[in-house]
Target: Amidohydrolase family protein
Amino acid sequence: MDPGRPAADALGVWQGRVVGLDEEIRDLPARRVLDLAGATVLPGFVDPHVHLAWSGLKSRTADVSPSRSAGEILAVVRRAAEAATGAWVDVVGYDQRPLGRHLTAAELDAAGGGRRVIVTHDSGHSCVVSSAVLALLPDGVAHSDGVLVESGMAAVRALRMPYRTAELRTAIARAAAVCVSEGVTSCAEAGIGAGLIAHSPVEAEPYQQLLAAGELPLRVQLMVAAAALRPVAGAPDDGPLHAVDLGLRTGFGGERLGLGALKVFADGGMMARTAALTEPYEGLDHGGQLYADEADPVRTVVDGHLAGWQLAIHAIGDRAVDVALDALAEAHRARPRPAARHRIEHAGLVRPDQLPRFRELAVTAVVQPSFLWYFGDDYARLMGPGRAPWLYRGQSFLDHGVALAASSDRPVTPGAPLRAVGFLARRLSASGRPVGPDEAMTVDNALRAYTVGGARACGWEDRVGTLAPGRCADWVVLPADPAELSLDAVGELPVRETWVAGEPVHES
Ligand SMILES: [Zn+2]
Model:
């Protein structure tokens, strides 16, 4: 992935770093020599948008996916309520689409025996709760018969918090093990501390514990949820006074664990039909909604920018992308920061007129190709033929000179990078339906989006994403070169080994 030297046959490692390639190392003594017998080595994948705690918890929580009928879901809720030891009954994997309607609070009351039941939607943007939960919510939190979306769901999360640090530590370790088994050697956790996907106000603590114990097998960057910022009294000349404690921000930390971007929500998600569109969803009478947090997202973006944060703005629908781009333009007007490297997370529906603006504002698009592998049929129907080609673009970003990073958003979908690379090159959903075929890119460019692109999105391009002298010795061993396979085989290619800092962290 180093354009100056795209291929080599031998690679030397010392102290967790690449020291040289081929002739640079041939005459050096080595304590150990590994012969990979013609296998392909690529830089470890960088997944710049994951949810490790959520992934790890989800894998051990009562799961109703695939949601086929209300009766089946309620049977799972009943069993989970009977097995629950604490006050809360957590159920995940919910999706109203196959039901044609939402579950109701009354149904959860009956199935959950009156307990505090939270059935979380697969998108992470909505949930259905029992009356016992509704009774705890502050006045003014809107719900429809127990269904809460976006900021309403964040209010439920606030009630549910905090998860125990020990529980989070186990969950994160479990998710990290899955990441390295899929070849991911660096990732960014997309928002800790508060808001929609938070688990604890001290959510960095389990990561620090794992790091100290040598049990964090990959590099992790923690994004901070904007809702975790609070007014801080600094010196009057220091500008905006919204900060996390001690004034920590993007860039703080070490090579294995550090702080990343400030995560801001502009809208919801397509699965929950809350992504904000300029035109209504096909077959629905609305175009989603902007995220109505307690704070104005534009204000949050500008304040975060002025305070030196990198911003990662969640914007899925084209209307939300407008909001994000406008806010970033306003931020740069207030104080130009050409190296800020702001990101738009998802960029799920981008109109042609919006593409040049990404480039003008130097915004990185952090897309999730696997969304279209798993949900492409639904999304394409929901957008109609006019807008379906704008979904989770690939090649258009490259054509417009926009920095592109691919990511998983696990556990919204399974996170295997090679599955996503295969999709980016082929643009076929799991059922074989073309989704935006004009956006297909080469396998090489798709791999670039999952290595160099992800590293750049995290500000880590001097460390990871390429294998070159001085870079971290993070790589995957594959049984074949993805660029030489047929396109339908790329997504099925297994990861044989994963190495981080010159040490094996996964062997299949
Ligand atoms: Zn996410």
Q: What stands out?
A: The chain has a mean pLDDT of 94. The longest strand covers residues 184-192.
